[in-house]
Specification:
Elements: E1 14-16, E2 22-24, H1 28-49, H2 53-73, H3 89-104, E3 113-114, H4 119-142, H5 149-173, E4 178-179
Antiparallel strand pairs: 1-2, 3-4
Amino acid sequence: MTFKIYTKTGDKGETSLIGGVRVPKYHSRIEAYGMVDELNSHIGLVKDSVEDPQTKNMLYEIQDRLFTIGSVLASDPEKSKMKIPDLYEADVEFLEKEIDMMEAELPELKNFILPGGHPVVSYCHIARCVCRHAERLIVQLKNENEIPEVIISYMNRLSDYLFVLSRKIAQDVGAPEILWRPRI
């Protein structure tokens, strides 16, 4: 049996959550997991742009966790009987350990840094901004629905990871960090 990518069920502006409930495509759940999907695409661009195998592997793991988060957000907790993968506090701790390892190799941060200096550094900053946007949408969704706290913690830490990764990549490729110098 062959599955077609198009179903035509969304042609009237609605889509289904896991569990079968139909909601408008602008529903807060759709907005949240759509932004997580967008973030995942940006992470893929970063992953495809770095040379370091350890960083590539880490970004692959992050993409996997983002699919987990998207699955949770796409589920109607009252209707879905489908087993959804879980996100764990250990996933947040894993990001923290990676951040700590990278920071140990970086100069102390004393200024705000402007995005740029190298294309991959810029890709990291774009991913960081999209991550923050996704986090805001998830927090908003949490005001209306039950969302596991660990998801918000993960997204918050992921944006930190992406910032530190941008600094590490800048250092690795010899790109300057562009310091913000406010006109005061």
